[in-house]
Amino acid sequence: MKKNITEILHHLGEENIPFGSVTPPIFQTSIFEFDSFDKFKEALSDEEGHYLYTRGNNPTVNIVEEKIAALEHGQKAKLFASGVAAISAGVMAFLKSGDHVVCVEDSYSWTKTLLEKYLKRFGISHTYVDGSEEEIRSAVRPETKLIYLESPTTFTFKIQDLENISAFAKKRGIKTIIDNTWATPYFQNPLDFGIDLVVHSSSKYFGGHSDVVAGVVIGSKKDISHIFKTEFLNIGAVPDPFASWLILRGLRTLHIRMERHFQSTMKVINYLSEHPAIEGINYPFYKDNPQLALAKKQMRGGSGLFSIKLATKRIEDVKAFTDNLRIFKRAVSWGGYESLVVPYAVSHKDLSEDNVSIVRIHVGLEDPEILIDDLERALKRMMKR
To answer: What is the pLDDT of residues 91-119, one digit of tens each?
Structure first.
């Protein structure tokens, strides 16, 4: 990845740009014209291979898709209007009534909503697992058609053994999909371990500036073509050309930003690991993580997202910690310049003594010493209560 990322991000798909422009133009158009009856008819009969209507293809969008596919070591990619649109299309394209899905339990909330509320209406069942190979094997049924992974997972950051799970699934003809938003292709390439499809919320590290909402699916030409024809065109979750151009801008610095996120996060975690107000830390590359060896096998580094468990069982203490942060912003999402916090108690209803003190943290691109000072101040205020 490190050897070819610059070539991918600054050359691939950008040949023959008009007027010698260093940056590809934004083709902010809804339709494309044809100079003959036959060419018009040909495009209408094969929308996947032609520029007809931006609902299907657009030159700016396609440049970004080509780069993301190369970064993920896939054959093809398809951009969507949001991460959840990409997830939904990737899942629904390979399911029918009566099918069964195995999904890691600590996955993105809207992935779970898709399974629990939407697909259930059409007779598609699911089973949640902790992500271990043993649980996945035992959860598979004759009607299982899809295994949905998220490695690392949301809030607890558990890792799945991608190579073993994909091999198990292939023997049974089960499709595998993984959300790789956390690691990005800079740090992890699930397709190399045999996973069939990779999805991303492009709103996160691909965009990198908290100013775009988009998603993407990457896989083989056959699978992406199937998604294009069955879900993408029909549902119409189309990425805007300008949003795609913003993702292209963000991709230019992906490798630089991910290295900074990783380095700063390790500094912050090293500080928190010694603090008396911290009971636990969830991060794949944390020295006490029981899955550290697997993390090093599958990933080349980590992003800026992790969670902590405060040494308290009182929601009032969690509020005091959160409210006394000055640099860390209280906001959803992650992957931009800014550092963020999301307490479990804000985003979840299933509160217990075990999870009420969990806080998700995103380390942005600010000076890590400033972030540590901010955390120190907030933790002191919490402990004085």
So the answer is: 999 999 999 999 999 999 999 999 999 99
**Gap between the Cα atoms of 334 and 207, Å rounded:** 10
Q: For residues 149 and 335, give the distance between their C-alpha atoms in angstroms, rounded to a whole number.
A: 20
Residues 189 and 263 in one domain: no
Report residue 385's pLDDT band, with 50, 70 and 90 as the boundaries: low
Identity of the residue numbered 141: R
Measuring CA to CA, which residue among 284, 296, 283, 298 is closest to residue 162?
298
Average pLDDT value for residue range 262-280: 97
Which amino acid does the sequence have at 370?
I
Task: Residue 41: give its domain's CATH number.
Answer: 3.40.640.10
Write down the pLDDT at residue 2: 45
Q: Are residues 143 and 117 in the same domain?
A: yes
Structural domains of the chain, count: 2
pLDDT in tens, 371-383: 999 999 999 999 8
Between CA 240 and CA 58 the distance in angstroms is: 9
Length of the chain: 385
CATH code for position 280: 3.90.1150.10
Signed CA dihedral, 220, 221, 226, 228: sign only: positive
Contact criterion met (CB below 8 Å) for 249 and 205: no
Q: Which domain holds residue 346?
A: 254-383
Helix (H, G, I), strand (E, B) or coil at 216: strand
Mean pLDDT calculated for residue range 2-20: 78
Same structural domain for residues 110 and 240? yes
Same domain, 172 and 299: no
Asked whether the beta carbons of 201 and 239 are under 8 A apart, the reply is no
Residue 244 and residue 278 share a domain? no
